[in-house]
Structure formats: C-alpha cells, structure tokens
Amino acid sequence: MRRRIAAANWKMYKTPQETVRFFDKFKQFPDATDHCEVVIFPAALDIPAAVQSTLETPIQIGGQNIFWAQEGAYTGEISADMMRAAGATWVLVGHSERRHQVCHETDAEVLKKAQAAIAAGLTPVICVGERYEEHKAGKAHDVLIRQFAGGIAGLTEEQFAKIVIAYEPVWAIGTGQTATPQIASEAHKLIRGEAAKRFGEEAAENVRILYGGSVKPENIEGLMREPQIDGTLVGGASLDPDSFAKIVQASRPLS
Ligand code: PEP
C-alpha cells in the first residue's frame, strides 16, 4: 500500500520569521500525519527555521533545488550534502519553474541532481509535466515518455526505489486551472507504465506519484478519489496554514 503524501512547495515566499509563524499556526491543527506524510519545501534560507519549528513532529522538510556536484567553484549553488546537513530530508528536482520558465534545466541535469540527492540520503521528488502547447496539441503523453526516458530511466533499480515522482502539467501550475482527476489519473497510469517497462511491475506498483497544479481545498477531494494519485504537491494553497491543513486532512488513504 503506497502511503499518501501532502507536499508544500513554497517557492520564493516567506522569510524565516514568516516560516516560524506558519508552523506555530499549522501545528495547532489536528495531526493528520497518521494517514499521510507531510513534507514542506521552503526556500533554502528558511530550512533551518523550518527544521527547528518541526522538531519532535512528523512533519518533514525538503529543499527546492540542489546542484549535482559535491563541492567546488559553483557560486550560488547548494550541494545535496549541504541540504542534508541543514536538516532537509527531501528535495524537489526538475520543477517546471526550473526546467522551462527560468533556468532551462535539461532531463540530463535532472538525472544528475536526482542521483546526487539519493547519494546524500535525500528523497528526490522528480517533477515531470507537459506545457500548455503540448497539452493542446495532444502531445502530453509523448512529453512524459520523453522526460521519463531522458531522466528517471537513467536511475538504477536501487535508486528508483528511493524516489517520488510528481506529475505537474505546466499549464495547471499557478493558473487556477487544475487538471481533472481523470487527466491526472491517466498521466499517472502512463508514468507507472513507463516505470514498469524499465524497472519491473513491482517497482512501478511501489513508486509514489503525486499530482501538482492548482490543488486547493476545494478540488482535492476529487483528486484523492483516484487510486493512481498518491498525494499532491501544492504551491499557492500551501502558503496559508489553514488552507494547507485542509489539504493534509483530505489526503487520507482510499478505504
Ligand atoms: C507547484 O509549485 O509545484 C505548484 C503545483 O503550484 P500551484 O499549486 O500554485 O499550482
């Protein structure tokens, strides 16, 4: 049985003080971590405050990005070991805002980052997803197959067992236009199928695939009715403790 995950990507929002205030409020809500894992991805500079605020709780903290090299002359970058030493246990890899919008990360870079994360003991959440034009042209599944082949497929079986995948259609991120549960479920099925071809049925059955893209308390119930969807990666709606607590509450296992 795959344990569901409610994950929060805070992007470039919140200072350390605002991070502490978020957790002061969030921790007052009933603990839902018995039915799902809760992982928060704050900006790198907020990680120590987030780790400190969540000591003695099951809430887990992750980074939003790492560089693949262990150390060296890479001004402005953060290594997987540094991230781990700061107390993070997860990391996002290949978020669309890093692949397409600003940084133009390639599938090959995504693979190197995922490998570096695993080597440092971080759980990478590897993001894949098609852009609006690709979605409109009916090419979504081709894009997912290409991203899988160029990135995730390069992992070993042992490494694959340590990752989480996030299907995040770019047209749904920050637009308020969520993919329907059916679109998301079909994409997850396709990704699981690619995983089965490369890593075998059992490994594919075990890997957790999250959906991300304008998830909100108002639309999470429909997504959570889909057995293929193992949780969500939430941007905008995770910044408010009350809203994210509702998403966590809704992330229960299928009965
Ligand atoms: C994200 O940043 O991964 C995301 C899904 O953002 P939003 O929920 O705001 O669409």
What can you see in these coordinates?
- The protein is an alpha/beta fold and 255 residues long.
- It has helices at 16-26, 47-53, 80-85, 96-101, 107-119, 132-136, 140-150, 157-160, 181-199, 201-206, 220-224, 241-250; strands at 5-9, 37-41, 60-63, 90-93, 123-128, 164-167, 208-212, 231-234.
- It has a single domain, classed as TIM Barrel, CATH 3.20.20.70.
- Helix content is 40%, strand content 15%.
- It is globular, with a radius of gyration of 17 Å.
- The termini are close together.
- The model has no long low-confidence stretch (mean pLDDT 96).
CATH architecture grouping: Alpha-Beta Barrel
Number of strands: 8
CA distance, first residue to last residue: 11 Å
CATH level 3 topology: TIM Barrel
What topology, given as strand order, has the largest sheet? Answer: 1-2-3-4-5-6-7-8
Radius of gyration equals 17 Å
Strand content: 5-15%
Mean pLDDT: 96
Q: Give me the strand/helix succession.
A: EHEHEHEHHEHHHEHHEHEH
Number of helices: 12
User: What low-confidence regions span 5 or more consecutive residues with pLDDT below 50?
Assistant: none
The biggest beta sheet reads:
8 strands, parallel, barrel
Helix residue percentage:
40-55%
- The CATH top-level class label: Alpha Beta
* Shape assignment: globular
Task: Tell me the structural class.
Answer: alpha/beta
Name the ligand types.
phosphoenolpyruvate
Give the domain tally. Answer: 1
What's the CATH H-level homologous superfamily? Aldolase class I
